[in-house]
Amino acid sequence: MKPIQLGDMRVHKVHEMDSPVPLLGQLPGTTSDDLVRLMRWYDQPDEITADPEASFMTFSVHSWVIEIGGMTILIDTCCGNHKDRLLPEVHQLDTNYLGNLRAAGFAPEDIDMVMCTHLHFDHVGWNTKLENGKWVPTFPKARYLFSRRDFEYFKNDPAGEELHNQAFIDSIVPVMEKGQGEIVDEDITVLREIGDGVWLEPAYGHSPGCCTVNAQAGGPPGMFWGDVIHHPVQLIRHDLPFAFDADGATACKVRKTTMDKVADTDTLCFPAHFRRSSAGHVKRDGDAFRYEFLGSGD
Ligand SMILES: [Zn+2]
Q1: 297 Cα to the center of ligand 1, angstroms
Q2: Which is deepest, 5, 209, 234, 245, by most CB within 10 Å?
Q3: For 213, what's the count of Cα atoms within 13 Å in the CB-facing half-sphere?
């Protein structure tokens, strides 16, 4: 996919994998009416039909790289290779993610900063790579920023979060031990100032400390959503919780607030799991929203 230019900021998508899973396992409240409405603007016949039982949710797992103010920032680092995971679909992966990063124009040593919207396994995996039997930071020159609330939560090995606890041990702890990790508040400004730089905004619900990454440089703003939303059907049903939200009710409220904020504006949105170009604009559509994907994507 071609990079996206937003004023003086350039955004690249780096794909790791697509993972199709039955829709109702992820978004159990989805109805046939929702899907019929979705199909008016989201045409993915291999994924969505009018029958929720027969429909899939295909997670695109990808990172975003932004070039802004002389910095190269990697947002969310996907699942990673060679990691033991309780979820069979992502256990011991061997993808070409680093090749895709190079194809986008970046070597690991080019990354100045890694930002994780939250500390779930599919957003932190490439923080580390296996080298001589040890997990070491993949990006040797990068500062890695982790949100305080998620860090405090996952460091205590919480019950019921075993999959993410695995990721904490092999993808967060080695970065901290190497001195490259930094625990930050969820409203920190990372570069320059709000409105002209890079800053975080809290978006709690899907995880205790998840946030959006916001960036702007002399053009339209970009909002990197993390998992504020998982699938386009949640623009129609913003009240539809994702089965693996830590706090589904709060996540739904945050989704609605986020959509209200960006709808019918020039903010370009960058969800963590939409397919195609993934990037797009939110439009109001009666009592709901719809999404205009940017270009055809890959
Ligand atoms: Zn995710």
Answers
A1: 20
A2: 234
A3: 27
Read off the pLDDT of residues 223-267 as tens digits, 9 standing for 90 and up.
Answer: 999 999 999 999 999 999 999 999 999 999 999 999 999 999 999
Residue 296 confidence class, pLDDT cut points 50, 70, 90: low
User: From CA 237, how far away is CA 34, in angstroms rounded?
Assistant: 7
Give the pLDDT of residue 43. Answer: 87
Q: What is the mean pLDDT of residues 31-45?
A: 95
Is there a contact between 215 and 198 (Cβ–Cβ < 8 Å)? yes
Return all residues near 267 (Cβ < 8 A) that are at least 6 apart. Answer: 220, 221, 222, 223, 261, 281, 282
> If 0-12 CB within 10 Å is exposed, 13-18 middle and 19+ buried, where does residue 227 land?
buried
The CA 226 to ligand 1 mean position distance, Å, reads 7
In angstroms, the CA 238 to CA 260 distance is 11
User: Ligand 1 centroid to 116 CA: how many Å?
Assistant: 11
| Residue type present at position 198 | V
Rounded distance from Cα 79 to ligand 1 centre (Å): 9
State the chain's mean pLDDT as an integer. 96
pLDDT (0 to 100) of residue 297: 47
Ligand 1 center–CA 120 separation, angstroms:
7
Q: Is 249 exposed, middle or buried (0-12, 13-18, 19+ CB in 10 A)?
A: exposed
CB-CB neighbours of 262 under 10 Å: 19
In whole angstroms, give the CA distance from residue 91 to residue 93.
6
Q: Bridge partners of 192?
A: 197
